[in-house]
Design a protein that fits this description.
- The chain has 819 residues and is an alpha/beta fold.
- The protein contains 24 helices and 31 strands.
- The strands form five sheets. Strands 7-6-14-8-9-13-10-12-11-15-16 form an eleven-stranded mixed beta sheet, sandwiched between helices. It has a seven-stranded mixed beta sheet with strand order 28-29-25-24-23-30-31, sandwiched between helices. It has a six-stranded mixed beta sheet with strand order 17-20-19-18-21-22, with helices on both faces.
- Strand 30, helix 22 and strand 31 form a beta-alpha-beta unit.
- Helix 20 runs antiparallel to helix 21 (706-732).
- It is globular.
């Protein structure tokens, strides 16, 4: 064969459904190579034959010039004997016994498709399901791999001749785009009223000759609430400037105060409502199209207008985000949304299609049944959704986007693990903001947002999701990692599954999982000083933790410090009524000398004495070191909020009050100072949160305004974090800090803490790809279980392990990062 060579090339990663085969075909043609390319269960398989320089260039450019949605993780090659083959073809997909390919997330409509969508001369003009290999549904429609049309919810739509031609042409942008379709052969829209009567669209003899998009826009402009079927489930929509519509939606959905997300026409519209930094603009316009939490502009706050057809206005009604100085904004990410935005030309609410804490509806029949009590009309289509997926939510932290909810657009893209797992692991996550995580080798597949595991519907979504991931990624876990809390439904699921299958279980302490998630998010394995601040987590001493300083690596940890414990009067009732935490902290801070003229006591006078007695005696008042509850206490003390309607509401509003006088730049206002003591000699140190409450109470009594007290408290908390880390550094020799837990969703606190930690000589790890809240717990559980499995240490992840040197030894050992 002369100087010809033949090489088999295997490409792993997210390489199916992203145009990788036509890219490979075009590259081979350009380089004059013969052979073939196909999909299989491992990814993309190619054989190329030609001159050695051309084959070498082909292999190199597979990685360097890959399509924009591809994620190339590996390119391996094996020499073969030349065959003399001429020409290059795209072969049929090959099935295999083991599935190793990665599935792409759903991606926003690309610029090319958007141009065609609004081109009157294009055959897909105004077609709401336009897509190509560079955009459109992926994860939400795939049933199995290899990712081919028969394995998706598009299997029932037979392509017309023109679509089939595009699908079969390697030079076409729609070559093997599995959801490809057009008005002649693809899904259709229809609009129904709440009673099921057809208002617009549909097919066949019963179709109504009215544009469903125009009809939906008119309904919204007239003040209706409309259920809209999207990529991963149903949304509920209402005109943002129409107070009556938004208030009706809030009432019917039983969502008292939690802000609604808004879809806005474009970046300019976003900038009229909110302050949009360069990082925020990049996040808003990226292919994932998440919701981004942004500070409102003055004038965009609580300006209500009643929209009229043709002139709906762009103001935001008070009920969109009551009492909140931020808005969650997103741009259109499907052709349907683009058409609706263009027709309405105004921001509109687009919130999850559910009631209160239920999972979002994604089957049509279920949506019509459950949402019929909320929506005045329905905009439906007949493309099936295989897996429900909520919108992702980001916040800009330290100039970069940080995930608060990782879901559509990001899932199921894997999170790489610092070291390969010896055996596959299932992490079952926590109770609130639940995700699960299935992992094998270097890949951790963190699930889409499941929600709070507090009802049968959400638990069913959790179990269905695990079954789907196990099938899709061919992961059969041998270890099941779970939280220590015995009453979490995720823990009970793990133990029941293990009992039925004889699989190995591993309990992972909640705050260790937080730090392990932060380490994994940063590609590190520790040891580090871990600061885990959140609402509540079950400690290894059976008390409720939440303000923890750990020295930890992935396999083990030591609790070296914590916020001092106070009582949680009434248990769960204190989480919903922050004034109870104010009472508990005031009892602990002042005892019999508690000030008698505090407004928080007057506002809650009927129950104040009884709750104070609970705090004094410990009756129905367990101990907690929770940082979240300390924020609640100060929020109630300063009059920000006595009760909450969603998790973290008091802390969110306290942060926003603080931000009105101090945004993290310039001089720091005078701060309070929390004492640090070691009540047990060589045991963990205690940070006296009571000192901060005592100082705040005195300021409140002296008439200091709430924003100033809130800012001083935030500065004092950051100071306490730094001094606690200094204590841990003195004992361990470590100088790298990992910050995790829901409290570090607080931008003001996190940015100040990072700044001060760096000034004190620390390097700092924070979250980016996975949330600092409990949405990251499942990843941390997997990382801990894998590290302990590799070290031959099964069981519960508590206390020191041999892999984590004791403090005396680490003075000469590691100073952060992976090993």
């Amino acid at each position: 064969m002369g100087d010809r060579v033949r090489v088999q090339v295997r490409v792993g990663g997210v390489v199916q459904g992203v145009g990788f085969r036509p890219f490979t075909h075009g590259l081979a043609k350009q380089l004059g190579l013969a052979g073939f390319v196909s999909n299989d269960s491992d990814g993309v398989l190619a054989e190329v034959e030609g001159t050695l320089p051309s084959v070498a260039a082909f292999v190199r450019r597979l990685r360097e010039d890959a399509p924009p949605l591809a994620l190339v993780e590996s390119v391996t090659e094996r020499s073969l004997a030349p065959t003399g083959e001429r020409g290059f073809t795209i072969a049929a997909s090959q099935a295999g016994s083991a599935r190793r390919t990665l599935v792409s997330p759903d991606m926003a409509t690309c610029a090319d498709c958007l141009g065609e969508l609004f081109d009157p001369t294009d055959r897909r003009h105004r077609y709401p399901f336009i897509n190509c290999t560079n955009c459109g549904p992926r994860f939400t429609i795939v049933r199995d791999v290899p990712y081919d049309r028969p394995a998706t919810t598009m299997a029932g739509f037979r392509m017309c001749a023109e679509c089939a031609r595009e699908y079969s042409d390697p030079g076409d942008r729609r070559f093997h785009a599995q959801p490809v379709c057009c008005p002649n052969c693809g899904p259709t829209l229809r609009v129904l009223d709440a009673g099921g009567a057809l208002l617009a669209g549909g097919v066949g003899e019963h179709a109504v000759d009215a544009d469903p998009i125009v009809a939906t826009a008119r309904l919204l402009a007239e003040g209706a609430v409309v259920a809209v079927k999207g990529l991963g489930g149903y949304h509920l929509a209402a005109l943002a400037g129409c107070e009556s519509a938004v208030a009706a939606l809030r009432s019917r959905k039983h969502r008292e105060d939690k802000p609604f997300a808004l879809m806005v026409p474009d970046l300019a519209a976003a900038a009229r409502l909110c302050v949009v930094s360069d990082a925020a603009a990049e996040a808003l316009t990226g292919p994932e199209r998440p919701i981004v939490l942004l500070p409102r502009r003055e004038g965009a706050v609580e300006a209500a207008v009643e929209g009229a057809v043709g002139a709906p206005g762009e103001d935001v009604a008070p009920s969109v985000a009551p009492g909140n100085r931020h808005l969650g904004l997103m741009l259109a990410y499907t052709p349907l949304h683009h058409l609706l935005v263009a027709e309405l030309a105004a921001p509109f609410v687009l919130t999850s299609g559910n009631i209160c804490d239920e999972p979002i509806a994604y089957h049509d029949e279920d949506a019509l049944r459950r949402l019929g009590r909320i929506a005045d009309a329905f905009l439906l289509h007949d493309r099936g959704i295989h897996i429900r997926t909520d919108d992702s939510v980001l916040r800009i932290l330290r100039g970069a986007p940080t995930a608060l909810r990782r879901s559509r657009g990001f899932v199921p893209r894997p999170v790489p693990l610092p070291a390969a797992l010896p055996r596959p692991v299932l992490g079952c996550g926590a109770e609130l903001k639940n995700t699960f995580c299935l992992a094998r080798e270097h890949h951790a597949f963190v699930s889409h947002h499941i929600g709070d595991l507090e009802n049968a519907e959400t638990l069913q979504s959790f179990t269905d999701g695990i079954a789907h991931f196990r099938r899709l990624f061919d992961v059969e876990p041998l270890i099941i990692a779970h939280d220590l809390h015995p009453e979490y439904l995720s823990t009970k699921y793990a133990l029941d599954l293990a009992a039925d299958t004889s699989l190995e279980t591993m309990g992972v302490q909640h705050h260790h999982a937080h730090i392990a998630a932060c380490l994994t998010d940063n590609g590190a394995s520790g040891p580090v000083i871990g600061v885990a601040f959140d609402g509540l987590g079950y400690g290894d001493d059976a008390t409720l933790w939440g303000g923890e300083f750990l020295v930890a690596d992935l396999a083990g940890y030591q609790r070296v410090g914590a916020l001092e414990q106070v009582r949680l009067p009434g248990g769960a009732a204190a989480i919903k009524e922050p004034w109870r935490m104010a009472a508990a902290y005031l009892v602990a801070a002042f005892g019999a000398q508690m000030p008698r003229d505090l407004d928080v006591a007057r506002r809650n006078a009927a129950r104040w004495p009884a709750v104070c007695r609970m705090a004094e005696t410990g009756l129905q008042a367990p101990l907690t070191s929770s940082a979240g509850r300390l924020f609640d206490a100060v929020a109630a003390l300063t009059g920000v909020r006595d009760s909450v309607n969603y998790e973290g509401q008091a802390a969110v509003e306290l942060e926003q009050r603080a931000a009105t006088v101090w945004g993290g730049a310039g001089p720091v206002p005078p701060t309070y100072r929390a004492g640090i003591e070691r009540p047990d000699g060589d045991g963990p140190f205690r940070v006296r949160g009571t000192d901060l409450v005592r100082a705040a109470a005195r300021d409140v009594g002296a008439g200091v305004d709430t924003p100033t007290v809130a800012a001083r408290f935030h500065a004092a908390m950051a100071d306490a974090i730094v001094r606690g880390c200094e204590q841990a550094r003195d004992a361990s020799g470590l100088s790298e800090v990992a910050l995790s837990g829901g409290v570090f969703q607080n931008v003001l606190l996190t940015e100040l803490a990072v700044l001060r930690l760096r000034d004190a000589g620390f390097t700092v790890l924070t979250h980016r790809r996975v949330p600092p809240n409990d949405g990251g717990i499942s990843l941390g559980q997997v990382a801990v279980a894998g590290a302990r499995d590799a070290a031959g240490r099964p069981g519960v992840s508590t206390g020191w392990t041999d892999s984590l040197a004791k403090p005396e030894a680490t003075r000469q050992g590691h100073h952060g990062g992976g090993r």
